[in-house]
Amino acid sequence: MFNIKDDKNILKYTPLIVYFLCLLLPSQFTHAASKPVIGWIEHVKIMETGLQVKAKIDTGADSSSVNAKLIEEYTRNGKDWLRFQIYNNGGEKIILDKKIVRYMRLKRRKASSIRRPVVTLNLCVGQISREIEINLSDRSNFKYVMLIGRDFLRDTYIVDSSKTLTIEPDCQ
User: Fold this and answer.
1) How far does Cα 114 stand from its chain's mean position?
2) How far are the Cα atoms of 37, 63, 101, 133, 145 from residue 104, in angstroms, in the given order?
3) pLDDT-above-70 percentage for the chain
4) Between the CA of residue 145 and those of 40, 55, 169, what are the distances in Å?
5) What's the predicted TM-score (pTM) here?
6) How many helical (H) and strand (E) elements, i.e. helices and strands, does the chain have?
7) For residue 55, with 0-12 CB atoms within 10 Å meaning exposed, 13-18 middle and 19 or more buried, which class applies?
């Protein structure tokens, strides 16, 4: 046995104690360390269009959202579709036609809930591309035209809120 007051013994056993503590750590901690780190603002490429936008990375949001204008609903082959415009931060616009996946009800603090259409978009952040459900909303009062939520971030990145624009979209 060693006496905790004896500094020599503590130093002697420290590497062994650290080794055993590392063995006891859950695998999720070591897995998290292997994920790349991104900032709270990043460039995102919408793969269907090639349009690149600045997006807020929001770990507090379940789902992702994009600023959409002139949303027009129509029927194609018996399915509900949307035609809408999206813009990047430089004002470049793209018109998209997408099948409606569903409608979601978004709860808001101190306001009534709102109903938003949801479509799928293939988004690229860094070298990771994912097709996710994204809701269309009026984000004209926000600084960033897109919000990336946990639906995209899950098992991909760690977000460092002190960083911005750390990577460029580079998906094939």
Assistant:
1) 22
2) 30, 10, 10, 11, 19
3) 81
4) 14, 6, 16
5) 0.75
6) 3, 10
7) buried
Strands 102-108 and 37-46: unpaired
**Could you give the CA distance from residue 41 to residue 55 in angstroms, rounded to a whole number?**
6
pLDDT band for position 28 (cuts 50, 70, 90)? very low
Structure tokens at 97: 């036609």
User: In angstroms, what is the C-alpha Rg of the chain?
Assistant: 23
DSSP secondary-structure letter at 36? P
Token output for 14: 């420290």
pLDDT digits (tens, 9 = 90+) for 81-95: 999 999 888 888 899
Structure tokens at 157: 């990145």
Angstrom distance (rounded) from CA 115 to CA 135: 10
Instruction: Look at the block and give the residue holding tokens 């018996």.
Output: 78
Looking at residue 155, what DSSP letter applies? T
Q: 24 pLDDT band (50/70/90 cuts)?
A: low
